[in-house]
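Budget justification aside, the reviewers requested a transparent look at the raw inputs and outputs of the sequence design task funded under Objective 1. We therefore reproduce one unedited record. The lines immediately below are the structure tokens for a 443-residue chain.
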């Protein structure tokens, strides 16, 4: 009887193993080993790091997070690292910076070149637009080089090297990278001009207090992932590519269809092309294509580029209707009046409420009297019912008397061939402010 029961148990175990083998191995055998504080500290201190962040309870808490509480995040970083680490290592070496800084984009962006934060920091290195432009990165409606792994990494290395020149301390440099040079200088001043991260710690913004220990913890977690039984069996690798230069409009969807290169591959290789097209004004734009497709591309280059350019009208129609798009629209600044709500403002200007919120980074529905709202006006969203007497002929007097509630946009829609810019020029207006009773030249 005991023998039969043992055989049945063996059969059940075997069937369980077969079923489990269909899952990734890390899911079948994923467990977090019980490793003592002392052992983690010993391993951490054995790392040959230039950035000397002392191991303490704060670092240990984040180590626990990355190796126990959110092991999947660390596992995903192991999957992605082979795509980006060679780029980081190359530029860190070129600028003479510590190699462990390659782990910073894990904390900043989860190794996602298209990552965008609430305050509108973008890319692997989470640059705000002013800082990015100072470092030579181009940002416009079509292209955002903060999303380009090569260009953004070089810009980040330049910026980090400059910050280190200011503080002469790596922990303070990391703090300044996170919260800005002003916040760190203010913390130093409030601490009595201490020049050590831990001594100015309590004067720093709350996020920055966590930022430096978190960086130390992710360095440890990535270096000792195997010790904590964190593996990945499907690592991602970079696609070998070649660069072609373009001096014309290129719609990536049409380019992909004509060349046979998958559109997702083109997007992956060119994350800085944020709207799916390269503008004609982007001279000598370097478009990355898979090396395996280079020969076929060269054979059919003229035809491929002709198709990619001919699809411009299709792209423009789609672009005008993208959520939050400003493509082909005129900017109007509207000052909120007493009794205004976002819905009525949106209807009055013929725009979508979701777009109005996106243009002004509004999450809820709260607005205040006197607040300035950016509104981008375009014909695709215009409804004739929202503005009276649309496109009527110009009055004989060539004058329009401003009525209560009128805006330059309203007036521009009333008369044929009239734009907001033309009203400004005819009346020497610098802004959008008009008052009831004003007489405006409209022709």
């Amino acid at each position: 009887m005991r023998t039969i029961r043992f055989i049945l148990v063996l059969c059940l175990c075997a069937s369980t193993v077969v079923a489990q083998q269909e899952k990734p191995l890390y899911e079948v055998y994923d467990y977090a080993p019980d490793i003592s504080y002392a052992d983690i500290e010993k391993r951490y201190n054995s790392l040959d790091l230039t950035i000397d962040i002392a191991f303490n309870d704060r670092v240990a808490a984040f180590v626990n997070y990355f190796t126990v509480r959110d092991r999947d995040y660390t596992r995903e970083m192991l999957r992605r690292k082979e795509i980006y680490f060679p780029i980081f290592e190359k530029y860190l070496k070129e600028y003479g910076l510590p190699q462990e800084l390659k782990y910073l984009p894990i904390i900043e962006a989860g190794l996602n070149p298209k990552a965008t934060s609430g305050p509108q920091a973008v890319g692997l290195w989470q640059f705000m637009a002013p800082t990015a432009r100072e470092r030579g990165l181009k940002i416009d409606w079509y292209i955002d080089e903060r999303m380009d792994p090569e260009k953004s990494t070089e810009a980040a290395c330049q910026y980090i090297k400059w910050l280190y020149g200011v503080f002469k301390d790596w922990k303070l440099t990391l703090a300044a990278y996170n919260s800005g040079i002003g916040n760190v200088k203010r913390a130093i001043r409030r601490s009595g001009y201490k020049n050590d991260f831990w001594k100015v710690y309590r004067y720093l913004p709350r996020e920055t207090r966590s930022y430096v220990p978190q960086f130390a913890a992710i360095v440890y977690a990535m270096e000792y992932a195997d010790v904590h039984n964190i593996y990945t069996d499907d690592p991602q690798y970079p696609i070998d590519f070649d660069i072609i230069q373009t001096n014309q409009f290129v719609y990536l969807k049409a380019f992909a269809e004509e060349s046979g290169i998958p559109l997702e591959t083109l997007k992956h290789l060119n994350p800085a092309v944020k709207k799916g097209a390269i503008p004609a004004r982007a001279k000598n734009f370097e478009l990355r294509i898979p090396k395996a497709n280079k020969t076929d591309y060269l054979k059919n280059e003229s035809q491929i580029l002709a198709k990619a350019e001919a699809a411009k009208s299709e792209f423009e129609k789609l672009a005008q209707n993208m959520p939050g798009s400003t493509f082909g629209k005129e900017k109007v600044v509207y000052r909120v009046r007493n009794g205004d709500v976002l819905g009525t403002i949106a209807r009055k200007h013929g725009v979508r409420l979701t777009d109005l919120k996106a243009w002004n980074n509004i999450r809820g529905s709260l607005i205040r009297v006197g607040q300035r709202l950016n509104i981008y006006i375009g014909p695709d969203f215009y409804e004739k019912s929202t503005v009276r007497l649309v496109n009527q002929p110009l009055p004989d007097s060539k004058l329009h008397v401003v009525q209560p509630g009128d805006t330059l946009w309203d007036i521009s829609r009333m008369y044929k061939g009239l734009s907001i810019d033309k009203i400004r020029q005819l009346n020497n207006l610098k802004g959008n402010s008009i008052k009831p009773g004003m007489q405006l030249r409209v022709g």
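The first strand starts at residue 241 and ends at 246. Residues 258 and 304 are 5 Å apart (CA to CA). Computational costs for records of this kind are itemized in the attached budget.
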